[in-house]
């Protein structure tokens, strides 16, 4: 129970309803190019090969009695925006947008029923604003318009660190250059004084 709301087991976003949950929990990421099956300990070079292994050898462990693939909800929950925000977005498809909005509203109704009190009602409204209202081809609303995670560009951060590291070096070079200029002027003044005797040849 969270925010005085009892979540039902039939809610689509419950982890128990993920048909691939058992398989995902048995993926062992050993190192960069090594994945291991938690059921039979077989090793693979990439996660996609482990997924194929699950499909071929451990298909019987899928929870397809009442479960669903959570990736089916990605269109409704804007997973594409989170996964790759810089990826080129195709033109809006009104039929797909309407279907995703319907799925999104169904999730809001099942996760936060309006008849469960004020907290559920507020969460229902917030969910609709954050996720469902953006399913439109008019281009008005954007997903995560309030409270979205702001991602700092790695390039921007790297440039800032580089500049901060170069500033002291720049000032040291300027200081040394100014000091050399002052020493050079003094040497010139000494040489140009009248009355210096020239060396005999």
From TrEMBL:
The chain crosses the membrane at residues 154-176. Residues 37-58 form the C2H2-type domain. Keywords: Membrane, Transmembrane, Transmembrane helix. This is C2H2-type domain-containing protein. It comes from Platanthera guangdongensis. The lineage of its organism: Eukaryota, Viridiplantae, Streptophyta, Embryophyta, Tracheophyta.
